[in-house]
Amino acid sequence: MKFSNLIYSLVGFCLLFFASCKNDLKINAPYKEIPTIYAVLNPQETIQMIRVNKVFLGEGNANEMAQVADSINYQAGDLAVTLERFVNGTQVAATPTGNKLTIVFRDSVIQANPGAFNTTQRVYVSSDRLFVTGQYVLKVKNNKTSKIFTAKANAIDSIPDQNVYAPFGPHYYPVPAGSPAGNPDFYPDYSTPNLTYSMKFKNNEAAIYTVVLRFHFFDSLNDGSKEYKFVDYNFGNQYIKDMRTFSFGKLFAFDFRKADLFNSLGFSLAKMNLSNAIPGRKMYKMEPIIYTSTQEYVDYLQFTAPSLSIAQEKPIYSNFENREAMGIFTFRTRRSVFKEMASTFISEFSFNPSTCKFHFFTSAGIAQNWCN
Q1: Which strands form 249-257's sheet, in the order they lie side by side?
Q2: For helices 3-15 and 295-304, what crossing angle results, to 10°?
Q3: Is-above-0.90 flag for pTM?
């Protein structure tokens, strides 16, 4: 998972705690420890990351307290975060490599983007690989109070090969030498005006589906080196009800046009604060990505979405046992491939009004037709 997505989801989740209370909180009830936990794990990722925060209540301004690292983070060593796996009620190996029964997450500190919460964030990470089947049990233990917070989730696999269509199928980057240049399955090209393109695939056992088109490019620096970057074109979420019927069966179809694509990419590139004080930059490969997740994740998104109701209180999501903790434990999957872009598609970034100001080279490496 991207950490930025994790942070934004968590921040939105935590803001719910302030939506129905004043800034000056006076708590007279006995203290009860209720952490917030965000654990959306992805078997296709090399690093798993879990976020655990304190629910901070006290006398004072809540917004000011959110900026204090100690108010939202547990201290190093305070928590023990573990993961176990069960099949038919029997505990089995938790990771495909070796016979490890318990995955232990380690403390780590990262710097988040500035926002409502302190930028110093403590997370719990593991590099152990996960199975795509079986039921995992997450346990978060407070070593000081011995309180344990538990949740269960079924692992899911990504979209399999036989369930995807172009551009998710072969050939992949780099395309074998001698392949026909005009074959769109080999070299995707989304540079034709007024033509509707589509990302199609069959469903797996997930409940929510998202497609991202990631475009990889490099900055050609003055010393002859290259700096590699990427920019995303994000599609909205779709659900099982959104599947469409085609002559060859029911599929998800994420449609777009050239203008939609380049307008969005131009907007995203502008936010990257790219410098043009370089010889130029060039697109070189595309990465279509399919993310899928569970019904629990759908429920979580619905609970954390901004409310349009005049009601002052809104339920807070939890799939932890007895709602002892607030938050979510579930699985998300990713299927991605690398595709070699058609030469006309690469050159379009140099010519298109939405992207030409970023000084992209043509496919031949020529710096021309750059707009001001």
Answers
A1: 196-201, 249-257, 244-246
A2: 50
A3: no
